[in-house]
Amino acid sequence: MRYLMIFQATDTSEGGELASERSLTEMGLVMAEMAEKGVLLAGEGLLPSSQGFRMQLDGGGKRRVVDGPFAETKELIAGFCLIEVASREEAVEWGWRCLAADDGNTGTLELRQVAAPEDFGDEFTPEARAREATTFLKAAENLQKSNT
Q1: CA separation, residue 146 to residues 81, 98, 140, 141 (Å)
Q2: Least packed by Cβ within 10 Å: which of 47, 75, 90, 109?
Q3: Element (DSSP H or E) covering residue 68
Q4: What is the CA angle 28-13-92, rounded to 5?
């Protein structure tokens, strides 16, 4: 089971205040342990929404780009981790460890299960599955290149 761990933004993170050395160290240790145990697939912190934008497409095909910042901090995210675990309970345990390590930067952590191929039924044809596998192999290569 894959879960996306979504770290909720706060007024502090949206204000551009950086995480403390302690928080970075503690979160780094938890993420290193998750990686070592094969749980961590990806994870990043995000810059404030003032440095982002939203794209909108209405029913008539009209496109619009709206620059941040965005007002509702409680609806924004400050970072994420993508994990793969055996159960919901294991995801919860890792979530508690991440929240504790985050040193009060985030008060809320949302976990959302990632859809698996079987969740799409017959509509997800063998051809579509093969195309997805090829696409994500290439994406992994791209990520490797960007990290070097």
Answers
A1: 18, 26, 10, 9
A2: 75
A3: none
A4: 50
The predicted structure's pLDDT at residue 19 = 84
The partner residues of 79 in beta bridges, in order of sequence, read: 7, 45
Contacts of 132 by beta carbon, 8 Å cutoff, 6+ apart: 117
Q: How far apart are the first and last CA of the chain?
A: 29
* Reported confidence tier of residue 105, pLDDT bands at 50, 70, 90: low
* CA distance linking residue 95 with residue 116, whole number of Å: 21
Q: Whole-model pTM?
A: 0.87
* Cβ pair 50, 16 in contact under 8 A: yes
Read off the pLDDT of residues 5-52 as tens digits, 9 standing for 90 and up.
999 998 888 998 888 898 899 999 999 999 999 999 999 999 999 999
Q: How many other C-beta atoms can be found within 10 angstroms of the C-beta atom of residue 61? A: 6
Residue 141: partners with Cβ closer than 8 Å, 6 or more residues away? none
- The interaxial angle of helices 88-101 and 21-36, nearest 10 deg, is 150
Secondary structure letter of residue 104 according to DSSP: T
